[in-house]
Structures are given as C-alpha cells and as structure tokens.
Amino acid sequence: QMDLGVYLTLEGGNIEPLSVSLTEVDTSYTIPSGLLQPNTEYELALMVETTIGGGEEDNDLDTVRVVRFTTGSE
C-alpha cells in the first residue's frame, strides 16, 4: 500500500504563508491574483510525502523541491 500527499507552500514578503494540498494528478496550480507583491523575494516549496507499507512498518519518504525567486517591478 502506498499513500501520497502533495503540498505546495509559498512564503515571503508580508503575505500569510500559503499552503495548498494537491493530488498526484494535478499538473499545475495558479497562485491567486494579487497575492504576490512587486520587488519581493519568495520561497516556493513542493513537497511529496510518500508512505509505503502498513501498520507499524510504515516507511516515510519526503521529497522537497524549493524554488526561490524575486518578483519584478510593476
């Protein structure tokens, strides 16, 4: 048995950290309009949590991809 959890988080600037739960079939996500501020550094992280097995013998594997970027001026 294998369980997947897919999470997208966005932090930076003066926004409340955004955390979104996705599914393994999602191929895109659009950040809500107006959320990102100009000339601001952000960190976007995509994490996949995989649990393989069952009972007390579960094996957890987390894979994280982090992208840091700065928005341009208006």
Could you please describe the fold and organization of this structure?
The protein has 74 residues and is mostly beta strands. The protein is built from no helices and four strands. It has a four-stranded antiparallel beta sheet, with no helix packed on it. Strand 3 and strand 4 form a beta hairpin. The chain is elongated and about 50 Å long. The termini are far apart. The model has no long low-confidence stretch (mean pLDDT 88).
Blueprint (SSEs and pairs):
Layout: E1 2-12, E2 18-22, E3 41-52, E4 59-70
Antiparallel strand pairs: 1-2, 1-3, 3-4
Question: What's a quick, concise take on this entry?
Answer:
0% of the residues lie in helices and 54% in strands.
**Any idea what the shape is?**
elongated
Rounded to the nearest angstrom, the distance between the terminal CA atoms is 48 Å
Rg calculated over all Cα atoms: 15 Å
- Sequence of strands across the biggest β-sheet: 2-1-3-4
Order of helices and strands: EEEE
Structural class: mainly beta
Q: Which residues form runs of ≥5 with pLDDT under 50?
A: none
Helix count, DSSP H or I runs of 4 or more residues: 0
What portion of residues belong to β-strands?
Answer: over 45%
Q: Give a short account of the largest sheet.
A: 4 strands, antiparallel
Q: What does the oligomeric state look like here?
A: single chain
Total DSSP E strands: 4
Q: In which range does the helix fraction lie?
A: under 10%
Summarize model confidence as the mean pLDDT: 88
